[in-house]
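User: Can you predict the 3D structure for this chain?
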Amino acid sequence: MSSQPVHRSILVIDIEGSTAAVRTNPIRQELRSQVYDMLGRAMDYTGVDGGWCDPFEDRGDGVLVLLHPVDELPKTLLLSRLVPKLAQQLAGYNADLPVAELPRLGLRLRAAVHAGEVHRDGKGCFGEAVDLACRLLDAPKLKQCLRNTPSPLVLVVSEDIYWGIVRHGYEGICPTTYHPDLKVSVGGRRRQGYVHVPSVLQLTTALQDHVA
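Assistant: Here is the predicted structure, written as structure tokens:
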């Protein structure tokens, strides 16, 4: 008997350059640990109750997070609090590293946000909504965008999230910083992804304010 779909907000993140030659298995383990710690702190900062999300799906060099549709966790908070907090932590972590150690220990992430119907069986989650989030995350243009920016994080949101959330300019979300820079094919349809790069200046200012 097939499982029934349940609605989830979907956040998926991936470490840049995790398979680089300078990154030995112990270093990969350390970076994974850092990502999980930062994600946990970002969720705490956002006010995400542990009961509002499914068990994390480990992706080796990334994490897939499924969040329940509860009133206390509107999708706006993923974009206005959780992702910015994650980017701020990344900036702080990298700033504390010696420049010579950045190729080995530096941490930069791609992130994707979508929402839709998800299925689950004994082996994990699946469905077109999950496929779309992962396809957006792995888009070559998003990888290129991260390589071309000094920001430690780039975010892509699905067209559903853009038109339902971003374009309305809710508090902490600036629609003009999201650009329709990539497309992917899922389920026989071309899907638009809107790319957002957190401001390095804003991240630096937030770090200075935190230290002060």
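The CA atoms of residues 32 and 61 lie 7 Å apart. The mean pLDDT is 92.
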